[in-house]
Every structure is written in structure tokens, then in C-alpha cells.
Design brief:
5-stranded antiparallel beta sheet
Length: about 270
């Protein structure tokens, strides 16, 4: 997988920041980072670092690159990589992210039987096959944001706005099935999906960063919850003294802790991603 991340300021392209080259393996190994929850923090805690502000602005620094190589999947078709490119806005700036996804990796997931998985949404996040692949994308966002002075809070919001910018496509239109949850790679390859697809993708990315996250399942909708401090504002679900602030994934413009009015009084189930 080859990916690139570019930042546009005032609609003028400044520089391509990171280039990540990754070959997807048959059996990935991954890890889940420990995260801390601090009741006195004004924001999230990330890898033992408390983040309390989001007033940093981007500075223009030199580009850098990272390269990770793991064994390639065996070819199962003569179809090549698909290049996908996404453009969205965050903090009044335009961003673009593009990557090449091997067809054989996409097809690996397409061959999986959904009948046994349709009621196990957490598996689409916790499946270890794509941990290194998803982790590489999450690391790219964090490294890029840190290079330009963004706080962790801003970088998480950058991820959120990225996922929110994907096209909403219902299962019946996109796949021909009434219910067809997608793995993160499938959603990016298809360049869109429905609410569970975008929630699976965002949960996977946040999980790889080390923040506590859950999926929030309503009777007819799905979103994401991200662990936050008690003095954060917004709508949240609390379990065992931990607050998970709601994140809407299907429409742009929703911030952390903001919830569509029609969902406010609805019951929801938290799907844990251990």
C-alpha cells in the first residue's frame, strides 16, 4: 500500500508531507496501546500525555517519509492496485489523502462470509489481519499533525472529519445486501459506506492511536464513542465511571460530544473493542 498526505492552505498546495509505503501481509501482528483516563484533564489523555489545549496552528516545515515493509499477499487476480483519493476540510483548511490499495487485499475481505459476522460488529475492528495497515494510516495522521504543530485533540478531529467526508452509500445500493458491514480496507477501497462502515473505520483508526473507544449502536444507527475527561462538554455514555463522548461519523460538521437531536433520548448499546 502506498499512501500520501498533502495539506492545502488557502487552497494553494504547499507540500506533500508524508509518503508511506506498506505491503500488506497475510498475517499481521498488531498491538493496542495502553491509554490513561484523567478526571482533571481538560481533554483526552494519549500515551500518558495529557492534552488540554487545541490552539496550535500549523507551521511550514520540511517533509519527511517513513517506509515499512512486510511480506506481500499472494496474487489471486490480475487486477492491480486501486488509487483512492480523499479531500476534505478541517479548521478552515483543505486536506487530501491518497493511497493505493492492492486488489488482492480487498478481495481477501470480500471472500469472507458475512452471515456469521453481521451481529459481531466489534470483530470488524478487532480483526488482527489489518492492524498494521490501519495502524500505518493512524500513524500517518499523527505524524503529519505533530509535524505541523497540531495537538492530539486536533489530530483526532482531523481523523473524524476525514471519515465524515466519505460518501454515504447504503448496503443495498453499495453491495446488493440488506446488511453488509465492511472492514476498514473495504470502506476505503469503495470510497464510502453506511453508518456502521464509517463507525468501524473511525473506531479502528482511533483504537490504533491508543485512545479508549467504543462503537455506539442504536436500533437503527451506529456511531462512535471516544473516552474523555469529566470536564469535557457534550453528550456522552458512561460505563464504570468512564465517559465515552459521542462522535457522529456519517455527516460532516459534527464535533466530539455533538449528537443529532433524534438520537439524544434513544437507548444505545456500547460495543467494546477489546
Amino acid at each position: 500500500m502506498k499512501s500520501s498526505f498533502a495539506y492545502f492552505k488557502n487552497k494553494i498546495k504547499k507540500t506533500v508531507i508524508l509518503v508511506v509505503v506498506m505491503y500488506v501481509s497475510v498475517a499481521f501482528s498488531g498491538c493496542i496501546y495502553e491509554f490513561d483516563f484523567d478526571n482533571d484533564a481538560g481533554d483526552f489523555s494519549y500515551r500518558n500525555e495529557i492534552v488540554t489545549s487545541q490552539n496550535d496552528i500549523f507551521s511550514e516545515e520540511s517533509s519527511q517519509s517513513i517506509t515499512t515493509e512486510v511480506p506481500q499477499l499472494p496474487a489471486i487476480s490480475d487486477k492491480g492496485d486501486k488509487n483512492v483519493s480523499f479531500t476534505w476540510e478541517y479548521n478552515d483548511e483543505e486536506w487530501t489523502y491518497s493511497l493505493d490499495i492492492p486488489y488482492e487485499s480487498y478481495d481477501y475481505y470480500k471472500q469472507m462470509d458475512r452471515a456469521s459476522l453481521v451481529n459481531s460488529y466489534s470483530y470488524f475492528v478487532t480483526d488482527t489481519y489489518d492492524d498494521e495497515w490501519v495502524g500505518g494510516i493512524a500513524d500517518t495522521f499523527f505524524e503529519e499533525g505533530q509535524n505541523y504543530g497540531y495537538t492530539d485533540y486536533d489530530i483526532i478531529c482531523l481523523m473524524i472529519t476525514f471519515v465524515q467526508s466519505l460518501e454515504y452509500v447504503s448496503d443495498i445500493i453499495g453491495t446488493g445486501y440488506d446488511e453488509y458491514p465492511k472492514f476498514p480496507l473495504e470502506t476505503l477501497y469503495d470510497e464510502g459506506g453506511d453508518c456502521e462502515d464509517s463507525s468501524i473505520l473511525l473506531s479502528s483508526l482511533i483504537r490504533e492511536t491508543g485512545y479508549g473507544t467504543v462503537m455506539v449502536m442504536f436500533d437503527d444507527h451506529m456511531g462512535v464513542g471516544i473516552q474523555g475527561a469529566e470536564d469535557m462538554e457534550g453528550y456522552y455514555f458512561e460505563d464504570n465511571g468512564i465517559r465515552y463522548y459521542y462522535v457522529e461519523t456519517t455527516t460532516s460538521g459534527w464535533g466530539i460530544g455533538e449528537m443529532p437531536e433524534e438520537l439524544i433520548d434513544k437507548e444505545a448499546e456500547l460495543l467494546y473493542l477489546d
